[in-house]
């Protein structure tokens, strides 16, 4: 029964907010529907932030969502706080194929050791954001997996609180009993407000799965936000929802591309496969002689993942670069 609940949640996660807009036009109509549509359009214009890639993008032909091409997205969960740019504590790569009607999702641990493209160093992969923002993150992940990264979606994890409260709280299923920030999270179904959801999504040190466990909870919060956002009751609070999204989400998807995804790719929500990249814990001394923890991934594992994702993107097989 628990697995069935999780499968149901997974089916609802891809651009559900667009379905809200469609539903408003069908059910509401008239001036109210126009008001919601106008607010959504304004929010998308606010979150739309193009990137200029200095490094070569691994694409021979431009991806066109309008034509229903397979594409990839880098999801960045960034812990931005006051006077701190932060690092991308969550990095998830999604490849989307409308021809097979499927999504493949790969979580990359934040401590993964690799070359930071454009910085000339080998370091933890989440440092790419601190050194070079979204552009360096996209370039670094692109080289690490040897696949093109076409789009990005950046979510300010600190803004989870605002978004969760805007949709009236979220419901999640917790598999691990733990305490964080003075709040107890027992095993079972939980209803969380914004403050509790933020604490729930941040814990990793007491999780046997470490970073993988935290990423799992963060994905569950995002899915729960989409579930609540898709409910009819949320339509009457659309101003707060769109305002919270506009403040905490950035992407290079355009408004027209989002509409194209809703038109050409909507059936893919029913088939999502998650991957976990295998690696080993490694301690390497730095220049000061201090041992630094890394997650070490072999070239063989990178090649295996690359082959799977490239096939899903309908690209030919290529050999990953050595020396990560």
From TrEMBL:
Compartments where found: Cell membrane
Residues in the Extracellular compartment per record: 35-324
Pathway given in the UniProt record: Cell wall biogenesis
Secretion signal, residue range per the UniProt entry: none
Residue span(s) of domain Cell envelope-related transcriptional attenuator: 87-228
EC numbers: 2.7.8.-
Keywords, comma-separated and alphabetical: Cell membrane, Cell wall biogenesis/degradation, Membrane, Signal-anchor, Transferase, Transmembrane, Transmembrane helix
Protein topology in the membrane: Single-pass type II membrane protein
InterPro entries in the record: LytR/CpsA/Psr_CW_biosynth (IPR050922), LytR_CpsA_psr (IPR004474), TagU (IPR023734)
Broad class of where this protein is predominantly found: membrane
Ranges in the topological domain labelled Cytoplasmic: 1-13
Family named by the database record: Belongs to the LytR/CpsA/Psr (LCP) family.
Record's function text: May catalyze the final step in cell wall teichoic acid biosynthesis, the transfer of the anionic cell wall polymers (APs) from their lipid-linked precursor to the cell wall peptidoglycan (PG).
Name recorded for this polypeptide: Polyisoprenyl-teichoic acid--peptidoglycan teichoic acid transferase TagU
Organism: Heyndrickxia vini
């Amino acid at each position: 029964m628990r697995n069935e609940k999780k499968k149901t949640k997974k089916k609802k996660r891809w651009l559900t907010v667009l379905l809200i807009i469609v539903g408003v036009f069908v059910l509401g109509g008239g001036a109210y529907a126009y008001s919601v549509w106008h607010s959504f359009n304004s929010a998308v214009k606010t979150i739309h932030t193009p990137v200029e890639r200095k490094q070569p993008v691994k694409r021979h032909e431009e991806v066109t969502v309008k034509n229903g091409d397979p594409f990839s997205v880098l999801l960045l969960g960034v812990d931005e706080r006051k006077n701190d740019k932060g690092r991308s504590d969550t990095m998830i790569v999604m490849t989307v194929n409308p021809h097979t009607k499927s999504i493949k999702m790969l979580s990359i641990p934040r401590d993964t050791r690799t070359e930071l493209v454009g910085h000339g160093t080998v370091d933890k992969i989440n440092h790419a954001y601190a050194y070079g923002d979204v552009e360096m993150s996209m370039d670094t992940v692109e080289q690490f997996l040897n696949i093109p990264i076409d789009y990005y979606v950046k979510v300010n994890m600190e803004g989870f609180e605002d978004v969760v409260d805007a949709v009236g709280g979220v419901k999640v299923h917790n598999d691990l009993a733990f305490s964080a920030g003075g709040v107890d999270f027992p095993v079972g179904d939980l209803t969380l407000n914004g403050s509790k959801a933020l604490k729930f999504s941040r814990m990793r040190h007491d999780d046997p799965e470490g970073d993988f466990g935290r990423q799992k909870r963060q994905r569950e919060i995002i899915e729960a936000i989409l579930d609540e956002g898709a409910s009819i009751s949320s339509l009457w609070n659309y101003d707060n929802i769109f305002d919270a999204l506009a403040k905490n989400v950035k992407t290079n998807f355009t408004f027209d591309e989002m509409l194209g995804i809703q038109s050409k790719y909507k059936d893919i929500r029913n088939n999502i496969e998650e991957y976990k990249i295998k690696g080993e814990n490694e301690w390497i001394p730095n220049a000061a002689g201090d041992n630094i923890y890394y997650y070490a991934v072999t070239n063989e594992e990178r090649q295996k993942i690359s082959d799977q994702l490239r096939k899903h993107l309908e690209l030919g097989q290529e050999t990953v670069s050595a020396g990560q």
